[in-house]
């Protein structure tokens, strides 16, 4: 399975990516995890990424693309992967196509987890409290959702136009959502 997982922040992409990768035996590749590792390590890239994340903005494409290209070239992604949080816009999707062409493979499916923005705001505020995540304050969450709506949501049209998009309701019990996702991938 070579897939991208789309949806607004807080829709459950990280939780479901972990479950899907276990089920299908492929690595989950999360740009959020890559960014946080760089921030924690204090790398120059991490410092720059932190500035954008703290402001509720997306890290620039050229930085993100380079990190994803390097990750997809690693051995564990050769048989498949699930991208969580990438691509975020049609330009990144075109770049992903180029990366995959260089590797001699194609994307199998784009899965969009749909969720109400008010519900995901509540989820993210709970996560911030539990995990102590500085990037999950209410104003930053609202900004991230606004950025998602204007910049990332057009990916649904991009992938729908290519016949790769499946949409899955992200509200409900975690196990229910997982089963919806597995059924969508098996389509």
Based on CA atoms alone, the radius of gyration comes out at 16 Å
Total helices: the number is 9
Content-based structural category: alpha/beta
The proportion of residues forming helix, as a percent range, comes to 55-70%
What fraction strand? Answer: 5-15%
Identify the overall geometry: globular
- Report strand order across the widest sheet: 2-3-1-4-5
Give the tally of β-strands: 5
Q: Which spans of ≥5 residues are poorly predicted at pLDDT below 50?
A: none
Write the H/E string, N to C.
Answer: EHEHHHEHEHHHEH
What value does the average pLDDT take? 89
The largest sheet, given as strand count, sense and whether it forms a barrel, is: 5 strands, parallel
Give the CA-CA distance, first to last residue: 12 Å
How are the SSEs ordered, and which strands pair?
Elements: E1 2-6, H1 13-24, E2 28-30, H2 31-41, H3 44-54, H4 61-72, E3 81-84, H5 90-103, E4 109-114, H6 117-131, H7 138-152, H8 154-161, E5 165-169, H9 174-185
Parallel strand pairs: 1-3, 1-4, 2-3, 4-5
């Amino acid at each position: 399975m070579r897939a991208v997982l789309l949806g607004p922040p807080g829709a459950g992409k990280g939780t479901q990516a972990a479950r899907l990768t276990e089920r299908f035996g492929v690595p989950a590749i999360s740009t959020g995890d890559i960014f946080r590792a760089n921030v924690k390590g204090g790398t120059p890239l991490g410092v720059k990424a932190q500035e954008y994340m703290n402001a509720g903005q997306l890290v620039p494409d050229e930085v993100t693309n380079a990190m994803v290209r390097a990750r997809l070239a690693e051995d564990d992604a050769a048989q498949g992967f699930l991208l969580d949080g990438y691509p975020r816009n049609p330009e990144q999707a075109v770049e992903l196509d180029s990366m995959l062409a260089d590797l001699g493979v194609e994307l199998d499916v784009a899965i969009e987890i749909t969720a109400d923005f008010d519900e995901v705001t509540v989820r993210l505020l709970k996560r911030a409290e539990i995990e102590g995540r500085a990037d999950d304050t209410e104003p930053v969450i609202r900004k991230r959702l606004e950025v998602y709506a204007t910049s990332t949501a057009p990916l649904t049209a991009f992938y729908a136009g290519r016949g790769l998009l499946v949409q899955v309701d992200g509200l409900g019990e975690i196990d229910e959502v997982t089963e919806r996702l597995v059924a969508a991938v098996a389509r």
